[in-house]
């Protein structure tokens, strides 16, 4: 109605109230998803698929590795080239991963 005609004072107040409520709900939803994402560790303990349930870290890793290899196929020979990428030395790596004191 606001796009088609001038709103009455009551309708205008209702529109403002509705927008405030919508903003509040969207903010609450965003906070809810933010809090869910703050979980520091998420682990999958089992996976149900068409051939049954897969359990155990080794079995899950093997299944997902095979799944993605089947999905994307074998890597191209060019994908394993690293000559044109500067590499971090062992010394630099140790400096980067050493705890701050």
What is the arithmetic mean of pLDDT?
82
Principal-axis shape equals elongated
Q: From N to C, what is the helix and strand string? A: HEEHH
Q: Helix content range of the residues, please?
A: 40-55%
Largest sheet: 2 strands, antiparallel
Amino- and carboxy-terminal Cα gap: 64 Å
Rg value: 27 Å
**What share of residues are in beta strands?**
5-15%
- Widest sheet, order of strands: 1-2
| Quaternary structure annotation | single chain
Q: Which parts are unreliable, with pLDDT below 50 for 5 consecutive residues or more?
A: none
Number of helices: 3
The count of DSSP E runs of length 2 or more, i.e. the number of strands, is 2
Domain count: the total is: 2
């Amino acid at each position: 109605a606001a796009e088609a005609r001038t709103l009455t004072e009551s309708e205008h107040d209702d529109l403002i109230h509705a927008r405030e409520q919508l903003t509040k709900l969207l903010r609450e939803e965003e906070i809810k998803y933010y809090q869910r994402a703050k979980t520091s560790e998420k682990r999958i303990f089992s996976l149900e698929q068409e051939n049954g349930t897969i359990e155990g870290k080794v079995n899950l890793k093997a299944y997902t590795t095979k799944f993605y290899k089947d999905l994307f196929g074998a890597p191209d020979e060019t994908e394993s080239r690293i000559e044109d990428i500067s590499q971090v030395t062992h010394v630099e790596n140790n400096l980067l991963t050493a705890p701050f004191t």
